[in-house]
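Suppose you are handed a protein chain with no further information: no name, no annotation, nothing but its sequence. What can you learn? This example shows the usual starting point.
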Amino acid sequence: MSINKEVKRVTTHVLQAMKAQQEKITMLTGYDYSMARILDAAGVDVILVGDSASNVMAGHETTLPITLDQMIYHASSVVRAVKRALVVVDLPFGSYQGNSKAALDSTIRIMKESGAHAVKLEGGAEIQESIKRILTAGVPVMGHLGLTPQSIYKFGTYTVRAREEAEAQKLLDDAQLLEELGCFAIVLEKIPADLAREVTSRLHVPTIGIGAGANTDGQVLVTHDLLGITKDFKPRFLRRYLELFDLIQAAVEQYIQDVRSRDFPNEQEQY
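A reasonable first move is to predict its three-dimensional structure. Written in structure tokens, the prediction is:
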């Protein structure tokens, strides 16, 4: 008689313990059931249902157009696939900025309708009221500092943030504030590696970097970038582990050729 070993779920407390034990945290984006099953089976710790779905799934130039309903759809698809990973969902642009009640309402919809485990918000002191209100409702919050793509039109560029002393100091202050408010982890995006190291050393909660060097507590990438599905996006921080765009295109071209040449289906592939 075989006994199925119960899968141990990753929680916010597990991530805290990983930082304490200096064990690196892995996070990747997921937007659909099939991909999320693969990521979870591979053992990734956190799956981020990112508003980057606006870019890689819907073809928009920025993350701004994606709606709360669309984020809930993607999150629901991911949650149904996951047995181990912590599922974190981005609150989309317009669902929390400047209105803490809207932030709570948006969060409650995500948690109730998708079954996700936590939400992520971009920004520091300017969104602290929203963070407080969400945490008061018992929902874990992941912070996000540095390059915040929802503010792209404010910045005007996707270049590295916090190179100047004043912006670096604000980032340090914001990171400390997010920890004090109760965020369980903070994403640091496209900031100098030395600054990311300093933030990580000051905080008790884990930092997860993207384009922030090797000294954060974990790393995150967009899965479609890692797999080479997005062909033209080539920032310095990205390591491609596959070139799926080319491989999938070649497979489809072969299928087209096989159908047109009457090679597919053959006798073994019919009833």
